[in-house]
Amino acid sequence: MELWFSEYQSKNVRFSLRIKDMLYSRKTPYQFLSVFETEEMGRIMTLDDVVQLTTRDEFVYHEMISHVPLFTHRSPEKVLVIGGGDGGTIREILKHPVKKVHLVEIDEQVIEASKKFFPSLSLGFSDPRTSIFCEDGIEFVKNNKGYDVIIIDSTDPLGPAVGLFSREFYKDVFSALNNDGIMVAQTESPFFYGDFLKRVYGDISSIFRFTNIYTAVIPTYPGAFWTFTMGSKSIDPTAVDPGELPDLDTKYYSRDIHKSCFVLPPFVKNIISK
């Protein structure tokens, strides 16, 4: 008998993967967490039946949400990650000479599942520069300041993550950043969530001096074409010279990608300008 996992990426679109084995399934205090072994995409983690990562393509998301803002800043020392309990973003941040990384993940069981089933992502949890806080990221940002870069590595704007996409939250993020600080958030697919992208872009651009959308291709996310929205207090990310960036051990991110990812297709420009 065939076993399939299916995610409804919209009310009319379903994405399915053939499953080899179910490795883990549990209702946490916040969401339903599962880990599967698949035929095509390796090991996957889902939350409330939505794919969060696969071992085959996770590097795209984690490299792009991390290296673009960190190299835009050029000298980050203290970085905050809100969400990101799988550890992939932490892994990429620690490739930079940062001094402190704070991870704020509301669901401790996501962290524990990643340690057990995704060791290639969670290895940064044991780095002495990493501190982990299992609490509400919205409240944490209100009470902690002095960050060079804040990365909002959240799930979709549903359930426990919905407050991470509000204008009030972005204002608190602004206050938590240093004068040359930068924030970035994952902001969904322009194909399926254009209205959402427009709202978030408008909220962030009303607070930060520079607001820019950049993109990446992530096969298992809705539409496969994904956006990130960056807010910067003083640094224009499009003025960064990629030729001056150092090399890193990456699979997707590169100097050329850093420059080209800010070039938006006309339909995305129209979404945020109409």
UniProtKB/TrEMBL annotation:
<comment type="subunit">
    <text>Homodimer or homotetramer.</text>
</comment>
<dbReference type="GO" id="GO:0004766">
    <property type="term" value="F:spermidine synthase activity"/>
</dbReference>
<feature type="binding site">
    <location>
        <position position="160"/>
    </location>
    <ligand>
        <name>S-methyl-5'-thioadenosine</name>
    </ligand>
</feature>
<dbReference type="InterPro" id="IPR029063">
    <property type="entry name" value="SAM-dependent_MTases_sf"/>
</dbReference>
<feature type="binding site">
    <location>
        <position position="86"/>
    </location>
    <ligand>
        <name>spermidine</name>
    </ligand>
</feature>
<dbReference type="GO" id="GO:0008295">
    <property type="term" value="P:spermidine biosynthetic process"/>
</dbReference>
<dbReference type="InterPro" id="IPR030373">
    <property type="entry name" value="PABS_CS"/>
</dbReference>
<dbReference type="Pfam" id="PF01564">
    <property type="entry name" value="Spermine_synth"/>
</dbReference>
<keyword id="KW-0745">Spermidine biosynthesis</keyword>
<keyword id="KW-0620">Polyamine biosynthesis</keyword>
<feature type="active site" description="Proton acceptor">
    <location>
        <position position="153"/>
    </location>
</feature>
<feature type="binding site">
    <location>
        <position position="31"/>
    </location>
    <ligand>
        <name>S-methyl-5'-thioadenosine</name>
    </ligand>
</feature>
<comment type="similarity">
    <text>Belongs to the spermidine/spermine synthase family.</text>
</comment>
<protein>
    <recommendedName>
        <fullName>Polyamine aminopropyltransferase</fullName>
        <ecNumber>2.5.1.16</ecNumber>
    </recommendedName>
</protein>
<feature type="binding site">
    <location>
        <position position="105"/>
    </location>
    <ligand>
        <name>S-methyl-5'-thioadenosine</name>
    </ligand>
</feature>
<dbReference type="GO" id="GO:0005829">
    <property type="term" value="C:cytosol"/>
</dbReference>
<feature type="binding site">
    <location>
        <begin position="136"/>
        <end position="137"/>
    </location>
    <ligand>
        <name>S-methyl-5'-thioadenosine</name>
    </ligand>
</feature>
<dbReference type="Pfam" id="PF17284">
    <property type="entry name" value="Spermine_synt_N"/>
</dbReference>
<keyword id="KW-0808">Transferase</keyword>
<feature type="domain" description="PABS">
    <location>
        <begin position="2"/>
        <end position="233"/>
    </location>
</feature>
<dbReference type="InterPro" id="IPR001045">
    <property type="entry name" value="Spermi_synthase"/>
</dbReference>
<dbReference type="InterPro" id="IPR037163">
    <property type="entry name" value="Spermidine_synt_N_sf"/>
</dbReference>
<feature type="binding site">
    <location>
        <begin position="153"/>
        <end position="156"/>
    </location>
    <ligand>
        <name>spermidine</name>
    </ligand>
</feature>
<comment type="function">
    <text>Catalyzes the irreversible transfer of a propylamine group from the amino donor S-adenosylmethioninamine (decarboxy-AdoMet) to putrescine (1,4-diaminobutane) to yield spermidine.</text>
</comment>
<comment type="pathway">
    <text>Amine and polyamine biosynthesis; spermidine biosynthesis; spermidine from putrescine: step 1/1.</text>
</comment>
<feature type="binding site">
    <location>
        <position position="62"/>
    </location>
    <ligand>
        <name>spermidine</name>
    </ligand>
</feature>
<dbReference type="InterPro" id="IPR035246">
    <property type="entry name" value="Spermidine_synt_N"/>
</dbReference>
<dbReference type="InterPro" id="IPR030374">
    <property type="entry name" value="PABS"/>
</dbReference>
